[in-house]
Amino acid sequence: MKSKVNLSYQFKELSKPMGWAILLSFLYNIVYIFGSAYLGASLALYFLIVLLSLVSAVGFYWICLCAWQDHPKLDKAALLPIVVYQGILITLTMGILSPLHTVIASMDLWYLTLPYQIVCALLIVLAQPIELCMFTSLAKGKTTFSQIKTDMKEKLKRSFKPIWNRYALILLMVIFLDSLVGAPLSMASGLDAFSILSGLVFYANPMFSWMFAFTMAAGLGMTSSIIAYLILLFGIGMVYLIVECNYLSMIKKNWITDGTKKTKTHKKKK
């Protein structure tokens, strides 16, 4: 009996979320890059960054829906939990960890730096998997906080480890490649967990490095080396996009499809 080989990267199924990811990334980057150039280092820029981060969280949820549902529909009731969760991340990053980063860096004491780096690292490796777990609950129509809490608790107990393991591998790949090309999540100048965390919260879209470099290069003139660098960044962005969309399909299998089957089986047994 011949076994069917399932291709890991299913381009046809993931074409819709990939298309939306590229479109929304470009829109985010255009607003951010030109907004930061116009506003400069002002309070208005921080408001813009916060607003873009909140909007991008909703956009990310829409991309997830496109990967998980044949006919995605954005439920208005899902917006509040998304904005609340992203708001908590923004508050932790900009409101608490950012001022602490400045203070701890100026003091340069290892017994303060180490726990600070650990806290940032924990947020790096846990924030997005938990957010994706919440997204799967919202995708199944669980929009109240009690429903989300119950559903997330069950899923995290059942299959958080494989989801987290894959996320950690993807994150390591992104940090490694970003370090090679000098992108936002680079560790070329040393380990700074806060910069990686803030990069994930505010600039973690596949096309950011490419578009930022493109706008910078546009003002300096396009040389052959710059064009080659832009092509490299665009290619890396596409690699990120393919890997991350494939990761979303894995989440669908573990937290939506399999979870639904298990729930139905459990009800039948009762």
Describe the structure.
The chain crosses the membrane at residues 20-39, 45-65, 77-97, 109-127, 167-187, 226-243. Keywords: Membrane, Transmembrane, Transmembrane helix. With 270 residues, this protein is mainly α. It has one domain (14-257). The chain is built from 8 helices and no strands. It has helices at 11-39, 43-68, 79-107, 110-139, 145-181, 193-202, 208-220, 224-269. α3 runs antiparallel to α4 (110-139). The longest helix has 46 residues, at 224-269. It is globular and about 50 Å long. It starts with 10 loop residues before the first helix and ends with a helix. Residues 1-9 and 264-270 have low confidence and may be disordered.
Report helical residue fraction.
over 70%
Helix count, DSSP H or I runs of 4 or more residues: 8
List the uncertain runs: 1-9, 264-270
Biggest beta sheet summary? none
- On the 0-100 scale, what is the average pLDDT? 87
β-strand number = 0
Shape: globular
- Tally of structural domains: 1
Beta strand %: under 5%
- Summarize the helix and strand pattern as letters: HHHHHHHH
The structural class is mainly alpha
How far apart lie the N and C ends? 36 Å
> Whole-number radius of gyration?
20 Å
Transmembrane segments: 20-39, 45-65, 77-97, 109-127, 167-187, 226-243
Keywords: Membrane, Transmembrane, Transmembrane helix
